[in-house]
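Hi there. Long-time user, first ticket. I'm pasting a complex I've been working with (about 723 residues overall). I'd like to know whether the download I got is complete or cut off, because the file seemed smaller than I expected. Thanks.
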Amino acid sequence: MSTEKTYKVPTMADMVASGEEPEILFWVGCAGSFDDRYKRVTIAFVRILNHVGIKFAVLGSEEACTGDPARRAGNEFLFQMQAMANIQVLNGYNVKKIVTACPHCFNTLKNEYPELGGNYEVIHHSQFLQGLINEGRVRVKDGQSFKGRRITFHDSCYLGRANKVYEAPREVLAALDADLVEMKRVRANGLCCGAGGGQYFKEPEPGKKDVNVERVEEALSTGADTIAVACPFCMTMMSDGVKNKNREDSVRVYDISELIAQGQGL
Amino acid sequence: MEIIQQILFVAALAVTGWYITKRVRLITRAIKLGRAENRFDHPDERLKTMLLVAFGQKKMFTNLLVGVMHFVIYAGFLIVNLEVLEIILDGMLGTHRLFAPYITPVYPILIDVFELLAFGVLAVCVIFLCRRFIAKVPRFQEKRHREMTRWPRTDAAIILTAEILLMIAFLTWNASDSVLRDRGVGHYAELQGVVPDFLISQFFKPLFAGFSDTALTVYERTTWWLHILGILTFAVYVTYSKHLHIALGFPNVYFSDLQPKGEMQNMPEITKEVQLALGLPVTTDADGSQNNDNGEQPAEVGRFGAKDVQDLKWINLMNAYSCTECGRCTSVCPANITGKKLSPRKIMMDTRDRLEEIQRGWKTNGYDYKDEKSLLNDYITAEELNACTTCQACVNACPININPLDIILQLRRYRVMEESQAPASWNAMFSNIENNMAPWKFSPSDRFNWADQVNEK
Ligand code: SF4
Ligand code: SF4
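Hi, the file is complete. Here it is re-exported in full:
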């Protein structure tokens, strides 16, 4: 590990103070800021950004929930309150390009903010990483830790079906030189992790089983030892499902950016 | 004799036409109950979608075998209509195979194609009946899906059986006609040598060998009448049935959502309130148009979200009338797969049932009639609504681009904003967002704490 290196996380306010303008704004999202597991993903991505020397910034404590869970649960007032406040901040900093690791933030910023006056180029971190790999700015060293490992990718609804981003995360994983195995329901037919639409924040309605258990069973049946995800909610749901099946010792859930960071020794 | 037949025929046509017009008016009126929404934008893209998804049946082919089978029925339906044109003209003019002498060389080819399709339709309908009632494909069974009650299942059986009977009538009519031609009976003799035997019906000819000339003529006339009366009855029946999709499927796809599936529609009436609350300049009127500050009163704001069909958009209501009850949406719904009460197909069927209930009310009590019921609660329960993960799998699966999720969302909006009826843990999530700018109870000032760990191993 490159212990000598120090990673920096500049905020938008810092940038403005020093009269600079970042190439991209990294939108961290609530899970990326507060969820202990997903903070590791935020950190992995920030390290990659540092590593390739991209000029980026975050909003830090000026960031607020995009309002996605509120809107989908039916609370349009709250959603728009959040959206307008965020748009004021973003427009105030003259933000043009946003990268985020959360498909829900991605979808909301990209598709739902324009109508409220927030127009930005919004990129999901899988697309961003794919770009870096294609440009050769990220090169995973010859499969040190990935050769022979079986990875399966779980499509998240708000990245896949909602915005038709299917290939980017797969291409990122392909760079790892691991064995990519697909589940039965993938891409447009992918099965939800069970968290979207506000489900994450409440108990599921009564049924035969929980959605994440169904999905994890499908993932496990591929024989994969790694379930790759590209969404904080999928991350939690898949991890819980793996625990439910008592497989947490042999099967790991990682975000694609963590795998790339690992591959780079970051 | 002929003239009586002609009069009867024209009368049958007129009755059918009158009835269908009445039904179309009623259904249009019901669809117009919905709220205004502009779906006339981007005509090029809409046309393209319609050509691919409706005419080209693109989404049917996700299940190749069923796609092919459905295509046979669909092509049969489109093309057999040409044959019906001749039948109708014959019926009105008292002619027999009117087109035959004019297009002699192509006529037999045409009829051969029709017969082939008719036979295909017949075969596929038999297979479809077997799938539903013998092989018991799970998504059509009441045991697994409570919306598949008696009527939807009977409806499907009626349609399939009717199509089979219509096709048998058509094929045996052609066969008896051929035999009459061979024997040179009456006016049938005129087409001797002009019209040959046809591809499929020739195999049915031996059936009629023992018939007397009179019996044969009676059979020929009866099947001719059965065939055309069957079609006319069918056309009326369709307006009461899930089979309405054969007509509404096309406009339904034309007017379908063009925005990304994950995008949920903005509520401009709320934008204004929020702008006022935040002390921002108000940029939109309640109807979503740019504020022109001419002092006009904005249109009256209805309910926030939807409680009943009137609060939904007209396209949601057209969706409901177009739904084929195929259950593709339900069979991909994560909530349904894992045994929750939610079924997107049921959402569509409930919406239509509610509309039909209102129609019945209109009939007995006039168009101002209002009852005490509503789509929410009387048809769709909170438990169903709350189970939706907004994953859009249903939207993606629907072969005619119906959007059940849009209705679910609007009903949720009503429950949350008008009735404050969200589950307790959602209310907690809402207040966290409101107070902490995150759905969890963390202090907003801790939001950036993660950055302290970037240099930890
Ligand atoms: S969007 Fe809702 S109703 Fe549609 S498939 Fe997903 S969970 Fe089911
Ligand atoms: S909404 Fe679409 S997929 Fe669902 S039952 Fe109706 S036609 Fe089939």
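A couple of notes from our side: Chain B touches chain A through 72 residues (CB under 8 Å). Residues 286-298 of chain B have pLDDT under 50 and may be disordered.
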